[in-house]
Specification:
Blueprint lengths: L7 H39 L4 H26 L3 H6 L1 H14 L1 H16 L7 E4 L2 E8 L3 E5 L5 E5 H6 L11 E9 L5 H14 L10 E7 L4 E9 L6 H18 L27
Antiparallel strand pairs: 1-2, 2-3, 3-4, 5-7, 6-7
Helix pairs in contact: 1-2, 7-8
Subcellular location: Cell membrane
Protein name: Mechanosensitive ion channel protein MscS
Pfam family, one: MS_channel_2nd
């Protein structure tokens, strides 16, 4: 029966190999991140790339450093022959993982196209599928946004790539508009003057192009006046400017005695009540 002493050299050899692998991996990973990440960031920044591209490149370089550190550390520790033997199996594993991680790969590819096409960049306000938020980070798999309620929203890149994305922040100027309804008997010019004056007072409203109000519809119960003014989206949020204009416009129209009708139903006609006669049986 073999004694325990016979296994001691093998155990020591395994422990020593594992220790060499661990030390080599830690050193290579730490040095790689310290050098390559810093070099990548400085190189991209010097060429004027935006923060979204730099963030995506940082994620890719980190993954490459991790894989490279594992491969080199395994070779140093003497796992090279094992790696060669497992290379054929690795191909099958990669194929299986590819089928299982279709969504992950789709998000990764979408992230690359988002960075390349630049439909938005960090700091932009975007709208998609009835959602809105400020872009805070573009990562390898997801894009992180901040809602107007200061919530962190994490969206898969494939969802943004497959959706119609509206970017109000891309241009230097943005028009803010809102529809006000007034009564058919009210003075259009009086309402127009009041709404233009209130638009001029909205924080961030520009004087050029100047605010305007136009009749855009004749509704069932109201004449629709659309108030429009322009802001710089880099300085003021469109939602805040629009909210301020709606409140100011409502108060001003009330002060001017201008009616703001709303749809309602009116029942006409008469209702008759039939008398019930009781018949007593003798």
């Amino acid at each position: 029966m073999p004694s325990v002493d016979e296994y001691v050299p093998a155990i020591i050899d395994v422990v020593a190999t594992a220790a060499i692998f661990a030390v080599a991996f830690v050193v290579l990973y730490w040095v790689g991140k310290a050098l390559l990440l810093s070099l990548t960031e400085r190189s991209l920044e010097s060429r004027g790339f935006n923060e979204g591209v730099i963030s995506l490149a940082r994620s890719i370089v980190t993954v490459l450093i991790l894989l490279g550190s594992v491969a080199i550390a395994a070779t140093v520790a003497g796992f090279g022959t094992v790696l060669v033997a497992l290379s054929a199996l690795g191909g099958a594993v990669v194929l299986a993982v590819g089928f299982a991680a279709q969504d992950l790969i789709a998000n990764f590819v979408a992230g690359i196209f988002i960075v390349k096409d630049e439909p938005f960049t960090i700091g932009d306000i975007i709208e998609w599928d009835d959602n809105q938020g400020v872009v805070r980070d573009i990562q390898l798999r997801v894009t992180q946004l901040e809602s107007h309620d200061n919530e962190l929203v994490t969206v898969p890149n494939s969802e943004l790539a497959d959706s119609v994305v509206v970017n109000p922040s891309r241009n230097d100027l943005l028009r803010v508009s809102y529809d006000f309804g007034i009564g058919y008997d009210d003075d259009i010019e009086q309402a127009r003057a009041a709404l233009i004056e209130e638009a001029e007072q909205v924080p961030g409203a520009l004087t050029e192009p100047e605010p305007s109000v136009a009749v855009t519809d004749l509704g069932d119960s109201a004449v629709v006046l659309t108030g429009r003014f322009w802001i710089d989206p880099a300085e003021y949020r469109p939602a805040a400017a629009r909210t301020a204009y709606i409140e100011a416009g409502k108060k001003r129209l009330d002060a001017e005695g201008i009616d703001m009708p709303y749809p309602h139903s009116q029942l006409t006609g008469s209702v008759s009540v039939a008398e019930r006669t009781e018949t007593k049986m003798a």
